[in-house]
C-alpha cells in the first residue's frame, strides 16, 4: 500500500477558516496538542471573502442594543426554526469574541469616541456589525492566523520548536474520519502537493470545513466549498440537520458571465444603496411579508429618513432578511422587469458622494471596476441571487458543538446546522465561527484529556480502505475491446461531471423549488453517482487538480442528495427553502427538523439513494426566551399548542 | 457575445525541469486569465496544477507571472491583451516550483514567524481598547494585504539572489513590522522590543533601496514603499541616532485618547 505518514495529536481540526482557527487556538490554549488540516494555503480560507462584518450586540453605536435584541433578530431571520440555545449562546458571547480579537491585534473601524464602529445590516434592529471597510473577513482570518503564529512563537521559546503543540498542515485534504467502534480515532487524508497519504491519530476531531456552494453553478463560494465536512460526518455516522435550507444571497454579480455569482456585499444596502427594477422603481416596498409589516418603512421617504434618524423611523425594505430580498429580485426578473443581463439594479451612485463610496466600499469599487468595467460611484450595479451559504449542517449539541452519536466528533461554523434556522442574517456567520469555534475547541480538548483509560486505536483496515478509495480514480477502467460495453466502461471526466452536477442543482433545486423538478434532480444525481464511480484522472499524484476534483465529487454528490431529499420532503416555504407548489409558511412545520443519515447500501452499487430522511420534533423554546417576544408576533410563527405550553 | 481562440503558453514541469506547453483555447467576453487556465484544465490538460481559491481578488492564491509580470490570474482581464497576442503564464520566479504554476511559498510563512506578534497593552481589558480612526488608518492600509506574495516575488533583493533570503524578510514582512510599529496600542516597547531596530538588524531593511517594485505589483494598491518601508527606514535611522528622541516621540504618539 502507499506510503502513509502517521502522527499522533490530541485534537485535529479540519479546516482553517474562522471556525477552525478559533477552535485550534482554544484547544491549544487548553493544553491539547493540536493539528489543523486545510485544503488551501494557511490564511486563504473562504472566510477571507466575508465582507460586511461581525454581528455582536456591543451597543457601541446604539446603546439600546443587547443580546436579547440580537437573539430576537436571529430567530426572526431564521423564521423560528433556529436551535434556540445556539442563538442564545451566540448573542450572549459574540461581543466577547470580537473584543478578544482586538487583544490579538485586530484593527476594526472606529467610532468617534474610539470604540469599534458598527454598521447596519439586513434583519438587524440596530447597527451591529463590527467591520473593517468591506474586508472584514480578511481582518478576521489574518488576526486568527497571526494569533496562531503568536502561539507557535511561544512554543518555540519554550520547547525549541514552532510546531511542537500547534501545527498547520496546509494544502492537505481529509477524505475519511477514522473510528474505533463508535469513537473517533483520527483522520485519513492526502497532501495535495505530493499526493502522499497522511494519518493523524487523535481522539477528538473538529470539523470546520464550511459549506457546499460548489454544488451549484451560480455561487459566491470558492472551490473549497465542496461539502467535505458534511460528507465526512455522514460517512462517520453523524446525521445532518435541515439540509433543505440553502441561502441565496440576493446580490451577486450577474455580468460578465465569468464572474457571475461573485458576492456584492450587503453593506451596499446597509450603507444606503437601493434596489430598482428596469422601470426605475424601488420594488422592495411591494415585497414586505406580513410577519415583518410593522417593522419596515412603507414609503421611500420614511425609509430614507431612517438612515439619519433610526429611532423615529422604520428601516427601508432593502434591508429585509436575505431570503425575502432574493425572492423579490427573482420575481421582478421573472416578471420582465429585470436589468439587461438578468438581474436588477443596485445603486449607490445617486445615494452617496463618490469619495464616501470609495472609502466605505473599497473592495466593491475595485471589484466592479476591475472585473466589469463598471464605476459604482457613477452608475448602478447589476445584481442577482447567488448561492451563498448553507444553514443546514451537522447536527450538534448547542453547548459543546459535539456531533450526535459519534463521541469525539465536533463541528463548528457553516458546516454545523441549527444556529441560523431556515435563514441566516448577514453578519451572524463571522460571529458564529468565533463563538462555536471556541466552544468546539474547548470541548474537543476536554474530550481528548478525558481519554485516560486508553486512546481509541486506528484500525489498519480502515486506513487501507481509505487509501484504496483515494487511489481509485487512477485505475478507472478503459473502454475495453467489446463495443457493447465500451460506453458503459469509459472513464468519466471529473470536470464534466462537476459541471453537470452544478447545472442540475442550480436548475432543479435552486432558489424556487417544485416537486417534479426535485424528483428529476434525484434521478440525475443517481446517474451522476454511477458515472462518478468511473471518474478517471490522468497523470500522477503530485498536485493534480483533476484527481482532487474526482475525490471531492463524492462529497458534493452526497450533500446534494441531502439537499434535494430534504427539500422535497418539506412541503412549505420558509427562509432559504421556497416551494412554488407550497408557497406558505406552515406553523405545523415550525417544530419539525429533518435529519439526513447515510443509508445502509451495497457500496458496489451507487445507483440507489444513499440518504435516509427522518423527522424529529424540535425542543420547545425556553419560556424566558419566548417572553422576549410580543404575543402578537409569536402567533404568526408558532402553533397554538406551542404558545400555551 | 464575442469569442475567439487565444494562444497560450503555460509552463509545465516540476523541480526536475520543464518547459512551455502551447494551447489554443476559447476566450469569451469578460473573462480573466484564470478562466482560461481552468478551461485548459477542463478540456485539454486535467492535471495542470494551479493554485486558486476565491477568484475575486480577495485571497491572494492565484499569483503567477503573466508575460513575465507578477500578477493575480483572477484579476487579469483577457481584454488587456490583443487577440493575436500569445499569452505566457509561468510560476512565480522567486520561489521553488512544485509543479506547473504552483510554487513552494514556504519562505513567506517562515518569515512571518520571525516577526514578533502584537503585544497587548498591559492593564487594558478586552472591550476597553480605544483608538481614533486616524490613528489606525496607517496600519489598516497594511492590513489590506492579501498575502499574494507578488511583492516578495518581484523584489530584486531576492528575485535573483537566493543568497539574500535568510537575511531579508521581504516587503510583505517589513510592512508587517511597520504595521505593528504604527499600531496605536502595541506594547512591544514596554517589553524591551524595539521594532524599528529589529527591522534594520533582524529583518534586513537595509537591503531595500526603495525602487518601489513592490508597490507597483501590489494588487491591493498598498503604498508599501512610501507608507511602510520609507517611514520605517527613517525611524530606524532616528532610533540609531538618538534613543531619547525616539522615546520622547513614542510617548507623545501614544496619547491616543485625545478627543477628536
From TrEMBL, chain A:
Residues 10-430 form the FAD-dependent oxidoreductase 2 FAD-binding domain. One of its GO terms (molecular function) is steroid dehydrogenase activity, acting on the CH-CH group of donors. The active site is at residue 322. The keyword Flavoprotein applies. Gene3D superfamilies: FAD/NAD(P)-binding domain, Fumarate reductase/succinate dehydrogenase flavoprotein-like, C-terminal domain, Succinate dehydrogenase/fumarate reductase flavoprotein, catalytic domain. Keywords: FAD, Flavoprotein, Oxidoreductase. Residues 498-595 form the Fumarate reductase/succinate dehydrogenase flavoprotein-like C-terminal domain. Its cofactor is FAD. NCBIfam families: PRK07803.1. This is Fumarate reductase/succinate dehydrogenase flavoprotein subunit. It comes from Streptomyces doudnae.
TrEMBL record, chain B:
Residues 6-93 form the 2Fe-2S ferredoxin-type domain. Its cofactor is [3Fe-4S] cluster; [2Fe-2S] cluster; [4Fe-4S] cluster. Pathway: Carbohydrate metabolism; tricarboxylic acid cycle. It comes from the Bacteria. Keywords: 2Fe-2S, 4Fe-4S, Iron, Iron-sulfur, Metal-binding, Oxidoreductase. InterPro entries: 2Fe-2S_ferredoxin-like_sf, 2Fe-2S_ferredoxin-type, 2Fe2S_fd_BS, 4Fe4S_Fe-S-bd, Beta-grasp_dom_sf, Helical_ferredxn, SDH/FRD_Iron-Sulfur, Succ_DH/fum_Rdtase_Fe-S. The keyword Oxidoreductase applies. Pfam families: Fer2_3, Fer4_8. One of its GO terms (molecular function) is metal ion binding. Belongs to the succinate dehydrogenase/fumarate reductase iron-sulfur protein family. PANTHER family: SUCCINATE DEHYDROGENASE [UBIQUINONE] IRON-SULFUR SUBUNIT, MITOCHONDRIAL, SUCCINATE DEHYDROGENASE IRON-SULFUR PROTEIN. This is Succinate dehydrogenase/fumarate reductase iron-sulfur subunit.
Amino acid at each position: 500500500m502507499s506510503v502513509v505518514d502517521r502522527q499522533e495529536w490530541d485534537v485535529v481540526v479540519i479546516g482553517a477558516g474562522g471556525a477552525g482557527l478559533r477552535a485550534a487556538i482554544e484547544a491549544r490554549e487548553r493544553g491539547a496538542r493540536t493539528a489543523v488540516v486545510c485544503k488551501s494555503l494557511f490564511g486563504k480560507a473562504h472566510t477571507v471573502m466575508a465582507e460586511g462584518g461581525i454581528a455582536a450586540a456591543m451597543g457601541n453605536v446604539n446603546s439600546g442594543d443587547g443580546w436579547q435584541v440580537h437573539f430576537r433578530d436571529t430567530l426572526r431571520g431564521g423564521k423560528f426554526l433556529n436551535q434556540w440555545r445556539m442563538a442564545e449562546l451566540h448573542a450572549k458571547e459574540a461581543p466577547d469574541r470580537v473584543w478578544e480579537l482586538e487583544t490579538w491585534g485586530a484593527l476594526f473601524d472606529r467610532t468617534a469616541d474610539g470604540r469599534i464602529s458598527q454598521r447596519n445590516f439586513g434583519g438587524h434592529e440596530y447597527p451591529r456589525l463590527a467591520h473593517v471597510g468591506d474586508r472584514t473577513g480578511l481582518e478576521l482570518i489574518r488576526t486568527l492566523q497571526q494569533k496562531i503564529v503568536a502561539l507557535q512563537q511561544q512554543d518555540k521559546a519554550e520547547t525549541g520548536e514552532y510546531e511542537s503543540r500547534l501545527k498547520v498542515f496546509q494544502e492537505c485534504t481529509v477524505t475519511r474520519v477514522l473510528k474505533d467502534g463508535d469513537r473517533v480515532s483520527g483522520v485519513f487524508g492526502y497532501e495535495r502537493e505530493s499526493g502522499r497519504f497522511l494519518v493523524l491519530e487523535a481522539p477528538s476531531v473538529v470539523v470546520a470545513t464550511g459549506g457546499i456552494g460548489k454544488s451549484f453553478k451560480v455561487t459566491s463560494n470558492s472551490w473549497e466549498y465542496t461539502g467535505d465536512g458534511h460528507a465526512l460526518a455522514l460517512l462517520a455516522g453523524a446525521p445532518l440537520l435541515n439540509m433543505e435550507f440553502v441561502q441565496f444571497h440576493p446580490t451577486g454579480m450577474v455580468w460578465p458571465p465569468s464572474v457571475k455569482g461573485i458576492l456584492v456585499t450587503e453593506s451596499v444596502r446597509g450603507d444606503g444603496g437601493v434596489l430598482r427594477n428596469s422601470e426605475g422603481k424601488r420594488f422592495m416596498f411591494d415585497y414586505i411579508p406580513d410577519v415583518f409589516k410593522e417593522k419596515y418603512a412603507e414609503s421611500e421617504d420614511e425609509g430614507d429618513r431612517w438612515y439619519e434618524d433610526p429611532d423615529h423611523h422604520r428601516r427601508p425594505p432593502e434591508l429585509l432578511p436575505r431570503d425575502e430580498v432574493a425572492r423579490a429580485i427573482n420575481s421582478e426578473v421573472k416578471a420582465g422587469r429585470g436589468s439587461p443581463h438578468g438581474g436588477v439594479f443596485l445603486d449607490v451612485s445617486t445615494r452617496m458622494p463618490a469619495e464616501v463610496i470609495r472609502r466605505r466600499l473599497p473592495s466593491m469599487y475595485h471589484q466592479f471596476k476591475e472585473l466589469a468595467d463598471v464605476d459604482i460611484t457613477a452608475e448602478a450595479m447589476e445584481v442577482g441571487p447567488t448561492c451563498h451559504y448553507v444553514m443546514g449542517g451537522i447536527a450538534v449539541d448547542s453547548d459543546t458543538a459535539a456531533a450526535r452519536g459519534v463521541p469525539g466528533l465536533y463541528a463548528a461554523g457553516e458546516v454545523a446546522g441549527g444556529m441560523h434556522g431556515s435563514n441566516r442574517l448577514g453578519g451572524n456567520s463571522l460571529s458564529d465561527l468565533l463563538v462555536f469555534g471556541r466552544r468546539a475547541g474547548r470541548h474537543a480538548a476536554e474530550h481528548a484529556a478525558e481519554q485516560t483509560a486508553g486512546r481509541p486505536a486506528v484500525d489498519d483496515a480502515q486506513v487501507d480502505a481509505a487509501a484504496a478509495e483515494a487511489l481509485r480514480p487512477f485505475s478507472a477502467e478503459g473502454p475495453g475491446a467489446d463495443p457493447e460495453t465500451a460506453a458503459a466502461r469509459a472513464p468519466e471526466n471529473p470536470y464534466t461531471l462537476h459541471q453537470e452536477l452544478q447545472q442540475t442543482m442550480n436548475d432543479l433545486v435552486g432558489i424556487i423549488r417544485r416537486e417534479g423538478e426535485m424528483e428529476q434532480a434525484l434521478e440525475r444525481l443517481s446517474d451522476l453517482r454511477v458515472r462518478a464511480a468511473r471518474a478517471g484522472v490522468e497523470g500522477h499524484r503530485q498536485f493534480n487538480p483533476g484527481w482532487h476534483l474526482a475525490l471531492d465529487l463524492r462529497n458534493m454528490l452526497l450533500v446534494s442528495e441531502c439537499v434535494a431529499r430534504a427539500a422535497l420532503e418539506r412541503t412549505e416555504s420558509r427562509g432559504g427553502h421556497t416551494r412554488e407548489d407550497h408557497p406558505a409558511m406552515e406553523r405545523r412545520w415550525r417544530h419539525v427538523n429533518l435529519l439526513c443519515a447515510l443509508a445502509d447500501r451495497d457500496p458496489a452499487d451507487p445507483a440507489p439513494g444513499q440518504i435516509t430522511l427522518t423527522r424529529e420534533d424540535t425542543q420547545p423554546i425556553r419560556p424566558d426566551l419566548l417572553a422576549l417576544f410580543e404575543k402578537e408576533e409569536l402567533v404568526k410563527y408558532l402553533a397554538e399548542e406551542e404558545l400555551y405550553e | 457575445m464575442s469569442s475567439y481562440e487565444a494562444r497560450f503558453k503555460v509552463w509545465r514541469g516540476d523541480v526536475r525541469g520543464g518547459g512551455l506547453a502551447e494551447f489554443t483555447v476559447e476566450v469569451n467576453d469578460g473573462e480573466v486569465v484564470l478562466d482560461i487556465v481552468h478551461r485548459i484544465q477542463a478540456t485539454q490538460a486535467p492535471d495542470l496544477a494551479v493554485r486558486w481559491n476565491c477568484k475575486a481578488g480577495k485571497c491572494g492564491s492565484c499569483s503567477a507571472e503573466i508575460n513575465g509580470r507578477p500578477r493575480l490570474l483572477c484579476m487579469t482581464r483577457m481584454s488587456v491583451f490583443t487577440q493575436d497576442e500569445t499569452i505566457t503564464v509561468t510560476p512565480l520566479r522567486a520561489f521553488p516550483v512544485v509543479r506547473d504554476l504552483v510554487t513552494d511559498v514556504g519562505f513567506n510563512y517562515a518569515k512571518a514567524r520571525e516577526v514578533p506578534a502584537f503585544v497587548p497593552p498591559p492593564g487594558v481589558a478586552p472591550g476597553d481598547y480605544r483608538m481614533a480612526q486616524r490613528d489606525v488608518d496607517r496600519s489598516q492600509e497594511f492590513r489590506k494585504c492579501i498575502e499574494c506574495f507578488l511583492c516578495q516575488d518581484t523584489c530584486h533583493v531576492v528575485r535573483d539572489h537566493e543568497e539574500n533570503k535568510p537575511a531579508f524578510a521581504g516587503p510583505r514582512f517589513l510592512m508587517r513590522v511597520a504595521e505593528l510599529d504604527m499600531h496605536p496600542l502595541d506594547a512591544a516597547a514596554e517589553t524591551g522590543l524595539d521594532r524599528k531596530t529589529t527591522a534594520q538588524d533582524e529583518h534586513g531593511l537595509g537591503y531595500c533601496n526603495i525602487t518601489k517594485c513592490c508597490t507597483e505589483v501590489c494588487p491591493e494598491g498598498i503604498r508599501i514603499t512610501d507608507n511602510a518601508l520609507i517611514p520605517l527606514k527613517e525611524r530606524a535611522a532616528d532610533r540609531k541616532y538618538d534613543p531619547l528622541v525616539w522615546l520622547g516621540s513614542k510617548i507623545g504618539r501614544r496619547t491616543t485618547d485625545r478627543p477628536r
